[in-house]
Amino acid sequence: MKVGVVTFPGSLDDVDAQRAVRLGGHEAVALWHGDHNLQGVDAVVLPGGFSYGDYLRCGAISRFSPVMTEVVEAAGRGMPVLGICNGFQILCESHLLPGALVRNQRQKFLCLDQRLRIERTDTPWTAAYAEGQEVVIALKNGEGSFVADTETLDRLEGEGQVVARYLGENPNGSLRDIAGVSNERGNVVGLMPHPEHSVEELCGTGTDGLGFFALATLAAEVFA
Amino acid sequence: MPRVVVDVMPKPEILDPQGKAVLGALPRLGFSGVSDVRQGKRFELEVEGEVTDEVVAQVEKMAGTLLSNPVIENYVVRVEQDA
């Protein structure tokens, strides 16, 4: 499987995401924000960081970069897209995912070993987990509070589009403890915590994040 | 040159942690009597030529597309003459 990782000006975790993709058993392909080209990849990761310095709003400028035209189009065709942290913000700004991410309730940048519960497992990014599985994944964000109107939140819960929820104390004020959501189809997933930082015992919080990069169901589809 | 101003504010139902932090700082500085603070953004667009209805409509479009995120923010567009 070829998994593209987009680098925007200000991306920080693109190289870590590429490494996680390789540890997941796939080929990582570096994609550039300024290209109208996905280089034939089977899936795309939008990594964490501070694209365009978080100017205007997090993800607001990246949304209009040339590569995002291609990502939005491919996502519409069903290509798996995972947005991590800043990538999640970009997906919300692109309207590929509902809601928005605003400043943490207590205004502080967080860096935590965060417990999560995986709630939706019929997405290509979470198929390696069991429904209700509890994992520990690195969380680091300044603007990670997920918000949406009540109607949208109810719809997300009703349709099973909440992918992961924070366990224990809510770290950033996200409504209904939401840590990650998907689109209806499930191919587009946004996640505030950083699974790419939880893929090796040597550094990080263990290897609970590796499942996001297994893409096992997708591989089965592509090679079927 | 005419100027078009776009004010962008967080929607009333969206928690505004920055406004809350400012509200918390005021009494510490000895200012009293403020019951709420909300923080937004102001954009000043210098426009070439006359501000026609068409130009205002264009700015409305900019405000809804880029300057604000309609999920969390409201905006108001107004024209300032002889700015």
> What distance separates the N and C termini of chain A?
13 Å
**From the structure provided, what is the oligomeric state, counting identical versus distinct chains?**
heterodimer
State the share of residues found in helices of chain A, binned by percent: 10-25%
**Beta-sheet strand percentage of chain A?**
25-35%
Instruction: State the helical fraction of chain B.
Output: 25-40%
**CATH-defined architecture of chain B:** 2-Layer Sandwich
Q: Detail the poorly predicted runs of chain B.
A: none
Helix/strand-derived category of chain B reads alpha+beta
Question: Shape of chain A, please?
Answer: globular
Counted by DSSP, the helix tally of chain B is: 2
CATH homologous superfamily designation of chain A: Class I glutamine amidotransferase (GATase) domain
Radius of gyration of chain A: 16 Å
Family (chain B): Belongs to the PurS family.
Protein name (chain B): Phosphoribosylformylglycinamidine synthase subunit PurS
Catalytic activity (chain B): N(2)-formyl-N(1)-(5-phospho-beta-D-ribosyl)glycinamide + L-glutamine + ATP + H2O = 2-formamido-N(1)-(5-O-phospho-beta-D-ribosyl)acetamidine + L-glutamate + ADP + phosphate + H(+)
Keywords (chain B): ATP-binding, Cytoplasm, Ligase, Nucleotide-binding, Purine biosynthesis
